[in-house]
Design a protein that fits this description.
- There is one protein chain.
- With about 475 residues, the chain is an all-beta fold.
- The chain has a domain of about 180 residues.
- Helices cover about 0% and strands about 45% of the residues.
- It contains one helix and 28 strands.
- The strands form seven sheets. The chain has a four-stranded antiparallel beta sheet, with no helix packed on it. It has a four-stranded antiparallel beta sheet with strand order 2-3-4-5, with no helix packed on it.
- Strand 3 and strand 4 form a beta hairpin.
- The chain is globular and about 60 Å long.
- The N terminus is likely disordered.
Length: about 475
């Protein structure tokens, strides 16, 4: 863990917070022998106890086929909170095989803080994937949605999961369900290298994309099916048991569909999910006809809602907003989708926001019902996260592309007013004294911004960076003044 050091000079909204870590940033070391690990941070949550909890993935470089999920606990100043697992961090695996040499690939995408109630103390819930070696010759791995639940002192919760071991896997390792289920696992990109003799150092959470929504005592998990047949949503009870009454065999599949007036089927790649009164609102895109943003609704009993949009899907083939990557319920009761679009010339991908109502129709209260596209760096850009910031909208994203310094990437942090304008009180100053509403943190490195948390006047961003001439990714959390 990097040591804290003071920073001199004035600090303005959009600057790194000098009271956090070193220059407003902490590099997260998943283990005391950090030189042996490569890591990424994927999500962050604030507990009611004031502790920041960050989850992600780490791989011991001496055993690259067996990554772990990680949890780190930090005080508000970025130092480790030793109340969690004695030193503020842990490495975990969703499955302990009988054969200790068997490959188990664990990663984490999301984390939630579960408040205490009259019967239970506060706990942490982690969502990710587990990769298990398939039987037979060669190195072949299948990936499944997985959950882990912890007490705040860093111990697995023995009231969670089928075996009471703190873990839950869909469709369940116990009772031979994994072998008998019709679920073949989650999709992995071809370049992930998980079936080669020398697989890539670890599986990025973005490679095996899973997302979730928690509603009325249930945990809904979404991902892409391994056989390419579409997006799958599965359901757990809050105690980690699979809800087999949901859909068919505990799951619903959003299969390719033929759009209105079309002749060829569109694939369905959903990336974000949010609970609404009528069901789970899903946002993503189709790869057909270039890229088109898609929205759908799944009922809480596990059906694609055919009353939503056009035969269950809402889309606009002529829109410049192309991908929905994150969803936020606004204070007006509508939904804000963050993602990416294309500029007027069709050259650069740009950050995109799109307001919709509960039925997937344009929200006239946000940018007059039109997508809001923001080209900031004139390089490939996308908003990857959105959060409420006291009625405004904080967004994070990334950019990458050629420049005078070579292929440069970086992190974007922005803030919008409720109707869709950049916040003039945030970000770098223009020549006229008005702030841009956004700020870029350039790095001559491979970078990613994965998770976003807004707490008061602070904006926390987590992700990973690959320093120049290095083969080891480093997980980070940085804090921007709001």
């Amino acid at each position: 863990m990097t040591k804290k050091s003071p920073i001199s000079g004035p600090r303005n909204p959009g600057d790194l917070d000098p009271t956090f870590g070193v220059d407003g940033k902490v590099l997260l070391e998943p283990h005391e022998n950090s030189s042996d690990f490569t890591s990424i941070a994927a999500d962050v949550v604030l507990g009611s106890n004031g502790t920041l909890y960050i989850t992600g993935t780490a791989t011991d470089l001496t055993n690259i086929r067996q990554p772990y999920y990680t949890i780190s606990a930090l005080h508000p100043d970025g130092s480790l909170d030793a109340r969690f697992n004695s030193d503020g961090r842990l490495l975990g695996s969703y499955h302990q095989p009988d054969d200790p040499t068997e490959t188990v690939r664990s990663s984490a995408n999301k984390i939630a803080f579960i408040e205490a109630n009259a019967n239970d103390p506060a706990k942490l819930l982690v969502l990710g994937t587990v990769g298990l070696l398939n039987p037979g010759p060669g190195y072949s791995v299948s990936f499944y949605p997985a959950l882990a639940r912890y007490t705040l002192d860093g111990h697995l919760d023995n009231t969670f999961g089928e075996l009471g071991n703190g873990h839950a896997i869909f469709p369940g390792l116990e009772g031979e369900r994994l072998k008998k289920s019709s679920f073949a696992g989650l999709a992995v990109p071809a370049n992930a290298g998980i079936s080669q003799d020398k697989p890539r150092d670890f599986i990025w959470p973005q490679d095996i994309n899973v997302n979730w929504a928690r509603h009325n005592g249930k945990i809904y998990v979404m991902g892409l099916k391994a056989d390419g047949s579409g997006t799958v949503v599965v359901c757990f009870h809050d105690n980690g048991l699979v809800d087999w009454s949901f859909g068919t065999d505990g799951m619903v599949i959003l299969k390719p569909f033929v759009p209105s007036g079309g002749t060829s089927p569109w694939n369905v790649q959903m990336k974000a999910m949010h609970p609404t009164e009528k069901g789970l609102l899903l946002g993503g895109y189709s790869g057909e006809r270039g890229l088109t943003a898609l929205f759908a609704r799944v009922t809480y009993d596990g059906r694609l809602d055919g009353s939503f949009g056009k035969d269950g899907y809402e889309y606009d083939m002529n829109s410049q907003f192309q991908r929905a990557l994150a969803l936020l319920a606004t204070r007006t009761g509508h939904i804000l989708a963050a993602g990416m679009g294309v500029d007027d010339e069709g050259v650069w991908t740009v950050g995109g926001l799109c307001g919709i109502d509960a039925e997937g129709r344009p929200d006239k209260g946000f940018n007059n019902g039109k997508p809001l596209l923001s080209s900031m760096m004139r390089r490939g850009e996308a908003w990857t996260g959105v959060a409420d910031a006291d009625g405004k909208f904080a967004v994070i994203g990334r950019y990458a592309g050629p420049s005078e310094q070579g292929n440069v990437g970086g992190i974007l942090v922005g803030r919008f007013l409720p109707h869709g304008e950049f916040d003039p009180d945030f970000g770098a100053l223009e020549s006229d004294g008005i702030r841009k509403g956004w700020v870029a943190f350039p790095l001559l490195a491979d970078v990613d911004a994965s998770g976003l948390l807004v707490e008061g006047e602070r904006i926390f961003v987590v992700g990973a960076e690959l320093p120049p001439e290095s083969s080891k990714h480093s997980a980070y959390i940085m804090c921007v003044k709001g």
